[in-house]
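Morning F.,

Quick status update on the modeling queue. The single chain you submitted on Monday has been processed. Sequence for confirmation:
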Amino acid sequence: MMVTSLLNKVRDFRDDQKGVIAIETVILIPILIWGYIAMFTIFDTFRQYTTQQKAAYTVADLISRQVTPLDADFLDGSHELFIELSRLNVLPGMRVTVAKYDTVNQEYVVVWSRTRGGMIGLQSADIADWSDKLPELAEKEQVTIVETRSIYTPFFEIGLGDRSIGNFVFTRPRYATQLCYFDGFVEICDLPTAEPPKEAPNEQA
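Structure tokens below.
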């Protein structure tokens, strides 16, 4: 009799579904919250990658349209523009390099390279074998390389950690045969004498 009563109570406990929803809620809500935070963090990380890439292309396009020598003020402004477009709260690195191709030695050569934000300027030895990164160039043709670097820290710690975001953009001068740099004393150019720059057409914003 006692055994039967005990078995009945066990069956009743097994079949009783009171509080099931509360228990499931306690289990599932933390998982749902973590999933939402993870999706937000991953989405924001990809957004930052895309935003910085667009900003780097914008700076490269701006530089490619110049027909007068660049100087320190112009690079400072370009660096600030990149920061503003990327909406960064940390100081990113930026490097602008003008290069040409040496058809005799069959290697790329640095004409000039300037940096902002702690990056190191490039030397000819650094880019000599960049045939897999840069396009084929004709004699006397230049290419402008814009590189950016920054560290992105996600809002929430979900295992991604700090991400290093880098961009590498190259473009040719649009309206001039060469892109010079004025260091305050002399103009650093590739060609001894530059051809007159083409007049930039009126373009819609």
